[in-house]
Amino acid sequence: ELNLSFQDLGDLYQVENFKRILQKLIRVEKLWLVDNSLTDLSAIRLPRCRELNVNKNHFTSFKQLPKIPQIQHLSIAENNIMTLSGISDFRHTPLESLILKRNPCEFQERYRQLVFSSLPNLKMLDGIPKLPEDCSPPDIRVFFKMCTIV
């Protein structure tokens, strides 16, 4: 377990040194990187990491997260993830719990259904267990309400 949160990485050289350290963490299983102003860790591989918390950073996409093939619990709340694009990269991981709270993608229509359909192994999203309506196929029918004005 390792907590490297709140590192105040304001300068580019600090970020580069921090990434160099992260590349050496091939045995870490639980890693907290909260509030570090991180934007891209896609070059990092954490082969044994089962739990990763990168809340309060500046990620804008799932593609910017490190390679985490064994991930079970991922928390990326309070970033700036706009869309669910790239979420399917986690489809073949043992991911059971995902926290995406306070990201713009949370306001996407059918958000929960889209996440659960992309991640079949997922059991919990934003602290709420998978519900029957999360598994239902998206409703493609569009209803219009008519109003007659006399």
Give the CATH H-level superfamily: Ribonuclease Inhibitor
| Number of separate helices | 3
In which range does the helix fraction lie?
Answer: 10-25%
What structural category characterises the helix and strand content?
Answer: alpha/beta
What's the SSE pattern? EHEEEEHEEH
Beta fraction: 5-15%
CATH topology: Leucine-rich repeat, LRR (right-handed beta-alpha superhelix)
Point out poorly predicted stretches.
140-146
What is the spatial order of strands in the main beta sheet?
A: 1-2-3-4-5-6-7
Mean pLDDT: 91
Shape: globular
Strand count: 7
**Major beta sheet, specifics?**
7 strands, mixed
Using only C-alpha atoms, the radius of gyration works out to 18 Å
Termini separation: 70 Å
Number of domains: 1
Q: How would you explain this protein's 3D organization?
A:
The chain is an alpha/beta fold and 150 residues long. It has a single domain, classed as Alpha-Beta Horseshoe (Leucine-rich repeat, LRR (right-handed beta-alpha superhelix)), CATH 3.80.10.10. The protein contains three helices and seven strands. It has a seven-stranded mixed β-sheet with strand order 1-2-3-4-5-6-7, covered by helices on one side. Strand 6 and strand 7 form a beta hairpin. It is globular.
